[in-house]
Write a structure and sequence with these properties.
Blueprint: H1 3-15, H2 18-25, H3 29-43, E1 48-51, E2 54-57, H4 59-83, E3 90-97, H5 98-115, E4 119-126, H6 128-137, E5 142-146, E6 154-163, E7 165-169, E8 180-182, H7 183-187, E9 191-193, H8 201-210, E10 218-220, H9 224-232, E11 238-240, H10 246-251, E12 254-260, E13 265-273, H11 280-299, E14 305-306
Parallel strand pairs: 3-4, 3-5, 8-12, 9-10
Antiparallel strand pairs: 1-2, 5-13, 6-13, 6-14, 7-11, 7-12
Protein name: LysR family nitrogen assimilation transcriptional regulator
GO biological process, one term: regulation of DNA-templated transcription initiation
Family: Belongs to the LysR transcriptional regulatory family.
Length: about 300
């Protein structure tokens, strides 16, 4: 198996046809087809379905595509580490959960352009469960995850502690609640939360169990945009940090109630692989992300977040 075969395969999948991939790669289509056939023969599986309309990945092809992307990224990172050993330069991919990107993404991009113009910072917004897998495989260099006791495979640096609040539609029944609610009161309402393996949900479940409580009937939605729409449609309330819903709260369409007895929070952590070395550029972005998070907490620009320690 050769690196060029991986590059050819990824290009074919990305462009949806052999002919378009051949044009982009500046490779004759028969040669591209031959390399794909050699790759499939070596692996002993069919990677692509071919038709007059183009190509689609088989189940095996989808799995191989993820690995091929990770390998190609690590090869590119290795080249950058050698070529730019004296100064931070190259491409860095940082994964952010949906609930954090609103607070951190733009300030970090701005700071990266200002301090490291030779670094191309690529931000990807994903569910936390997906980000952990991408970090393990090397598809992203860094990721912001939440300390749920399952981060031992990663090198970790705490960024901030985020308070979770009970957030509902401003004119709903929950409007009658006081400025703060107990966790039991919050859990006793109709809640809209992410799935069990994503975002705030593991933290909510853990705190509830420790307090002898449990979540009731939950609508599971893994998209912040859809979750907002569901709250505004009166389908229920949520337990989240303030930041991802700040625009709706400031407009007055949503209302925030702090949670007590017990309060509930989560720790945002910057994570890197323990087995895949960081490039100089990735190390620089890691330090910059920590500095930006600290400044956002100090200035109050990251609502509900505070510095640790």
């Amino acid at each position: 198996m050769e690196i060029r075969q991986l590059r050819y395969f990824v290009a074919i999948v990305d462009h949806g046809s052999l002919s378009r991939a051949a044009l982009v790669l500046h490779v004759a289509q028969p040669a591209l087809t031959q390399q794909l056939r050699h790759l499939e023969e070596e692996l002993g599986v069919q990677l692509l379905h071919r038709s007059a309309q183009g190509v689609l990945s088989t189940d095996a092809g989808k799995v191989f595509y993820d690995h091929a992307q990770a390998i190609l990224k690590q090869v590119a990172d290795a080249k950058q580490a050698v070529t730019h050993s004296a100064r931070p330069a190259g491409s860095v991919t940082l994964g952010l959960p949906h609930s954090v990107s609103g607070a951190l993404a733009l300030p970090l991009l701005t700071a990266a352009q200002q301090h490291y113009p030779d670094i191309t910072l690529q931000l990807t917004e994903e569910l936390t469960g997906n980000l952990a897998e991408q970090l393990k495989s090397g598809r992203v260099n860094l990721a912001v995850l939440f300390d749920d006791g399952q981060l031992t495979p990663f090198a970790t640096t705490p960024l901030a502690e985020e308070e979770l609040a009970y957030i509902c539609r401003a004119d709903g029944e929950d409007f009658k609640l006081g400025a703060s609610v107990t966790l039991a009161q919050a859990l006793g309402t109709k809640l809209i939360l992410p799935g069990l393996q994503h975002g705030v949900r593991p933290r909510i479940e853990a705190v509830a169990r420790a307090a002898g409580l449990h979540t009731g009937d939950v609508i599971e939605i893994n998209s912040i945009a859809i979750l907002k729409s569901a709250i505004l449609a009166g389908m229920g309330a949520t337990i989240l940090p303030v930041a991802p819903l700040l625009a709706e709260i400031e407009r007055g369409s949503m209302r925030v109630h702090s949670i007590h007895h017990p309060p509930i929070s989560r720790t945002a952590v910057l994570c890197a692989s323990r087995t895949i070395p960081l490039t100089n550029a990735a190390n620089a972005i890691s330090q910059l992300a920590l500095q930006v998070a600290q400044e956002l907490c100090r200035s109050g620009a990251w609502p509900g977040a505070r510095l640790l320690g």
